[in-house]
Amino acid sequence: MNEISKVSLPDYGPEEAAMRVYLDEGARRAQTLGNRGPIRFTPDGAVHPDILEAYWRCGFYIFEGVLKADELADIEADIRDILDRLPAEKGCPVDAKGRPALGADLKAPTLFWSKPLADPFGGTNLAAGRHPVKMFEPKAAADAPKEIVYLILGSLQFSEAALRVYGHPELLAVAAAVNGDDFVPFNEALFIKEPGRGASVAWHQDGVTHWNSPDWDEGSHGFNFMAQLYGCTPANGVWVVPGSHKLGKVDIKAMVADAGTERLPDAVPLVCKPGDVAITNRQAVHGSFANTSPDWRVTVNFGFHRRRSVLGVQGGGVHNKAAVYDAERIHTRARMIGYGIDARRQRFPHETPFVYQPLAGETYRWDADAKAGIKDYNLMDLSI
Ligand SMILES: O=C(O)CCC(=O)C(=O)O
Predict the structure, then answer these.
(1) pLDDT tens-digit readout, 151-164
(2) Would residue 190 count as lying in a domain?
(3) Collapsed DSSP state (helix, strand, coil) of residue 41
């Protein structure tokens, strides 16, 4: 992908030297945590308890080598197609080739734009004000576009390869081990961090509904899988404050003020090779910096919740209209898991498909009708 973009690479200007030290030190701290390795199972088929211990201790874990070269090639082909079909500029109904642009006919929030290297959410009231501090915004090169797409929601309708990752049997086994056999979807996204352009995602904790619940705990707001097409580095990857998922709602503004910088001293980067998949607790303090590095980062992002965190709960209104999530809505949204499993079965017939208990006995076929039927499916995201 790197040949797609031959942009001049700016740096962090006055912050560059401090940033380089921070990236190196963070990478060193990350190596000490003991929270990475292949997905492993016990002889009776359970996700290995050491993995779950490390995930719950740190709030994230990196599964190495989950997606192989053929699957990565499928994802890359889809990403190239998606990038090709983006609106020629924000608000434009057609792409650069004059075709109807991706997302132009959709009702659900789909494309998120930012000025290159900017931080569109930090320090604003957007998304329930959960990104309280703006990150440093390096100055983009003069030849950069006015705005870029850095986030695409409802992404399973744009990429069958992403849908097949969504149906990955080992990842779904991890979802069941963390959130219970009756786990339910959250949402799906593509995060795109183009070299010299990719936006920051300011420090935040994701949940908005359960912080004050009497039964709140370290897993109340679920987790995201973050599958890496090209891998990710300290410069372009997500950073996490280990253990912060256990602290309840934390005062990020005070953390930054205490540190005297948004380079939070305890945070560590997710460092991944192509095909690695991180699992990150949504309650952990996390964020990512503007990408002044020469490397693309494309994350196939998809999250899951505990059913009890969602059923009968009034949604947070961050990803779609707030509503009370009843069993029917959860079932409708969970059909994407059924389609993901079947899409994967068709492409990787040698694998044993995951059996998703809540849909047991039902048949989901990934075909042209199913594809037509998932337009705007993310209007049903379960956003807590
Ligand atoms: O990928 C990123 O840069 C940010 C991801 C994130 O904040 C999230 O998935 O909640």
Answers:
(1) 999 999 999 999 99
(2) yes
(3) strand
